Amino acid sequence: GLPQNLTWKGDSVSNVWNTTAANWLKGTNVTVFSPGDAILFDASGSASPAINVPGPVSPSAMSVTGSNDYTFTGAGSIGGAMTVVKSGTGTLTFNTTNLFSGGTMINGGKVVMGVPGAIGGGGVTLNGVLQLFGGDFNNTLSLVEQGTLIGSPSANDFLKGAISGEGIWSIDLSSGRVLSQESDLSGFTGQINLLGGGTLRLNQGVFTWGNASAAFDLGAEGTLNNRSTSARTVFLGALSGGTNSRLRASDQATSSSTTYQVGALNLDSVFDGSMQDGGGVPAQLLALTIVGTGTLTLNGTNTATGGIAVNGGALIVNGSAGAGAVNVANATLGGGGGIVGSVGVAAGANLSPGASAGTAGTLTLSNNLTLTGANLRFDLASVTTPGNGVNDLISLNGGTLALNGVSTVLPNYLNGPLASGAYTLISGGTATTGSAANLAWAGITGMRQAFTFDLSTPGSVLLQVSGPPPAALVWQGTNGSNWDLTTTNWLNSGVADKFFNIDPVLFDDTSTNGSVIVAATVEPGAVTVSNTTRAYTLSGGRITGAMALVKSGAGSLTLAASNSFTGGVTIQGGDIFLANDVANQTALGTGPVTLANGTLNMFSSPLTANTAAWNLVVPSTFTGQLNADASCDLSGSLSGGGTFNFFVPATNTTLLGDWSAFTGGINVLTATSGVFRVANLSGYPAAALNLGNNVTASFALDPGADVTVDIGELSGGAASRLRGEAGDSILTWRIGG
What we know:
By secondary structure, the chain is mainly beta.
């Protein structure tokens, strides 16, 4: 007869699968299996005892679903050109040697190979769990989303088929066994996670070793090594691992080396484990090459002696690095750990002690340090204490310091200007070649202080800071309007003075000149505008640096130029006016803008369209107001829990930013008519939105699908409206979550 669609019933006694046992259902009718039937094992069938396959059977299709754990055993085999499809949460165990050739698709649950050849021929598509039997595994393997391969509990496994796909591939080696990857891995572009304390061994013959497109996570205690007796480069797109994980060279006896090239995926990763030479005699050396733009952080004890080449991105050594030489080119070396081998930093490369920028630390070198036109990046505090987490320090611990070319010291000021006195940058060496002429200071220029280098102690570099500290200045403007480094327009403790960079400055009501022209790029320590009767306008050049601008008092401040300071703006009173479209975009620098009982006024013109991107903050218990531009795309964010008054003068202020974190009240105001024009999907789920009279809230996107915009609370005036805009999708304004 024609092939049938059958569902396994079983008899719970012998559970025989052959062509005579009536253990199947066609619909509700009991029947027998015939070759070519399409069969289903689901949660309704008998899974105990194991299904006995005494002879060959050849279905046209086979699916195993549901939560039942099915086991197939017997002297027979499952054959045919069909594909076995496994889904559901149950476990499928094959204790039969099978001949089906269409492959195995694991979409859920677990498949266990109880004997060699249990899953026949064809490829395996893995989006579930596959447990190997041991020995050679010749099937190809394609990963989909998330798949787990469990090594045999009793024997080593050897992967012979090509690996492809993407997603997360977990390799469970909890048995402590070895899984040997001996095939082409280049088709896989996801992440490989090792589970348990076993070893993934790379032995890929003529294929590229490893995979620069895959990230490798060795887990808490996994080991990755290779099996080659000759020099090899093993490519790892990224590397991570726990405290007891290991990256090793070959354990074969050989005088060659394995180079692990890490970083082509441009990811930041942390390796807490150890890097080790091989275990043979002689031992194969492990070398490391860093590429890409990401950062690899080493927190473990690394004893490998093959050397490290940092050719891209950054290497942060917070643990230790072995006796091999470390050479840095077009990249960064940093950390708060120790390096046994010699260190060389080439022209343009960076040496940055400390675990991260902004955190002071000591990098200890137990060998020679050679700087050839390098960049030396130091976090420095307002006290001169050497190291000890206060200032960055390079401790040579007995090595020599060689200065070739001109290396540049680039400071990062941790908590304000430097103190007068000596800062120890490098210490502990036995000798120095070179002089102070081989070092250049790249800190802020135009300050009251002077900076020189002292190399009088062999193997050490001191930064000598002399001169008075920054002075607190008050603007007077008696000699014109210029704010520069030469004009005496300020008072320093009541005495006329000129401005130096890093001086904190105050604009108050004592000045008779409110027009301030920034005649050069200036870098004050802070800018405070505390005015009630004197209005100020800052125009001309750029204000830069890490400073913050604070506006208080009922008076006004107009910003007419582009600025790049990063400390943010806080409006505690009065108004800040932005004088033009350029000021709308850049006058407030790049930091957050805090509205704490003050008002920010954008330059508004319906004839010119522009953009602005601010991270606005309205703190709880405070009220802030933004008077928007009539034609503007407003990006950025809104946070805080205060009261935010948002004035929209017309129809073309479009809200592109994410305001979903704001938990206060948003009052949308207008004069005659205005539009609260939403062009984002984040909504206002925690805010109380009040639409003033003649305000329309509209949605300006057509995402091509139905969309919901959340509003925590909604109120409005008699003439306020909610509406959508053009498009075929359905817009839902959801109030109250």
